[in-house]
Every structure is written in C-alpha cells, then in structure tokens.
Write a structure and sequence with these properties.
106 residues, mainly alpha, three-stranded antiparallel beta sheet, 5 helices
C-alpha cells in the first residue's frame, strides 16, 4: 500500500514537470514566431527612448521586461528582428562608441 502511494506521488510530480517543460517550450516558440508582437515591443522601445537609435543593452532589457524572457532568448529575438528587417545595426555609432546600436527600419 505504501509503495503504491509513493509511486503515484512520483508519477504526479513527473507529469507536472513534463507539463511545465512543454509549456515553456511552446511559449518560447510562440514568442519567436510572433513577429507582430516583436514589432510592437521594438516600436514601444524606440518611442520610450525618443531617439532614432537604441543600444543593444536597452533593447535586451526592454524585451526581457515586456516579454518575460531571459537574456539568451532576447538576443535570439533581436536576431529574428534583424532577419525580418525590423532592425538594422547603426554602423556610425558602432565606429564611434564600440557598442552595438540599432535603428528601426519600419
């Protein structure tokens, strides 16, 4: 009887863990595929900055805040935004300050 209860308890814990892993995976992949949401966060970041260029650090911070992702996922989202032509690197700022700055292209 005691062994059955322990086995059921372990099975429930394992099932909850698998559900959590699946939820995190599906949430991240939906964030990566949702270009409109990414465009809205980038647009909001540039409006808050009130500048035509934004540093990579600020963009990462805003993506982490608004989308609830970690830094690695924020960098992947920046790469996705560059691939979708939402952002481009500002080469003039790069030469002057040795930091990466982005310009909005939409």
């Amino acid at each position: 009887m005691l062994m059955n209860n322990a086995l059921i308890f372990f099975g429930v814990i394992l099932l909850l863990g698998l559900c959590l892993v699946f939820y995190k995976y599906s949430h991240r992949s939906s964030l990566y595929e949702n270009v409109d949401q990414l465009r809205n966060v980038i647009d909001m970041t540039f409006k808050e900055a009130e500048k035509p260029v934004v540093s990579q650090n600020r963009l990462i911070k805003e993506l982490k805040h608004h989308l609830g992702v970690n830094e690695k996922m924020a960098l992947r989202l920046i790469g996705k935004a560059r691939h979708e032509n939402l952002l481009e690197v500002d080469h003039e700022q790069l030469k002057e300050k040795d930091k990466v700055y982005f310009k909005k292209t939409f």
